[in-house]
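Hey,
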Amino acid sequence: MVSRWLLIFFVSVFFALFLWVSTSTAMNPDCSPVEEKSVKVEAWMSKQYEKSLRQIRNEFSAMGNTRVTLWVYPTKNPSKIVAIGSCVPAYIGRHILRMAIEYSGGVSSLVHQGFFSSNWIGVGTSLFAESSFRPVTKDQLTKLMDTSLDTQKFQAAYRQLTMQQKKVKAFGLLLDNPKLIENP
């Protein structure tokens, strides 16, 4: 009987440790160089661009070290939400933001990096709950796209812009954010 409880205890501790390590790795991953692990870019494009997807794919991948997938959004315009992973170099992040502004009509919100892979970029995405992203102004976006920012400063600025609110409005109340991920 004791060995059964001991086994349950060790399995529980192992599972808790596994969850802690996987969560902390998602927030602070050891980034491989993009030459070893390329950046996956997924973008949802307006129907108006359906005939020129090949040319647009080439524009999105112009910085190199990316794998680009484009989809035609089922309605007129995709969302103006962008997600940039924590291992994406600044030069690729800025390039994709420029492409998002050109082909998605702008960028209105940025998604917190705890909700997706560190080597992933989503443009025009509707995959995330509203409590997972934050609105961004044109001035904030301009500062994020500053070419003087190296990757570390770019990523720090992105994380600052995507800090989640601890409380969100729901059902006419101000409640704890169910999607809250604490920044390291």
